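Sharing a chain and its predicted structure for anyone who wants a worked example. Both blocks are below, sequence first, tokens second.
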Amino acid sequence: MSTPIGDWATLALILAGALAGGFVNGLTGFGTALTGLPMWLQAVQPLIAAQLASACSVIGHLTTLPAIWRAADWGRLAPMLIAGLIGVPLGTWVLPLIPLNAFKMAVGAVLIIYCSFMLFVAGRLRLAAGGRGAEAAVGLAGGVLGGIAGLSGVLPTVYASLKGWPKDERRVFFQAFNLTLLTAMLVASAAQGLVGRDFLVALAIAVPGTLAGSWAGVRLYHRLDDRRFDRVVLFVLLLSGLGLIWSSR
């Protein structure tokens, strides 16, 4: 349920979601929407919450843009990025047509099942198959989820975990993918006339929390090895799945 922006409970939820989302994004390279959405959806309309998730994620990524730009293999990322960009407008078009609670319940259930299983097998499961075609399919689906609710990182995160990529490679990949697609999501929303005053007010409230959380998350990231990073990513996805189901009640 949403309330008018200006109510103290609403302001607190927006700021808390930004702080938590910024921290997780700084720590893992993704997760702003996964962490912040359960709180933001209690404070503002779903469209504003999705836009807020995208904008705060982009702001968090921009603080590390020089490092991302130098480290990213843009040729390797191209199939997933191009497919993801195609998916974003499809997601923004579908957004007003789907029952949001059912969508959150479905995504949350998938995350809980996947993360519980992956934590149980403790990294022993690896995906051998998958090339440019598979990466393009993952990118397209990620773009659709990004357009719907700013959740562009979910499927690429699962794919990278199953492939067993090292933490530095995963982090650069997550950030480059999310920065590109979520920027496109915001542009698509603006082009459709969906960006309004309430979103701008909510964003102004969220920016300080996003920056502070991102700063703290980056500091902790440098202390993690590959195994601990993998566990952190899975726990973030698991908690996010639980949060999505809780917010869909």
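Comments welcome. Residues 23 and 213 are 4 Å apart (CA to CA).
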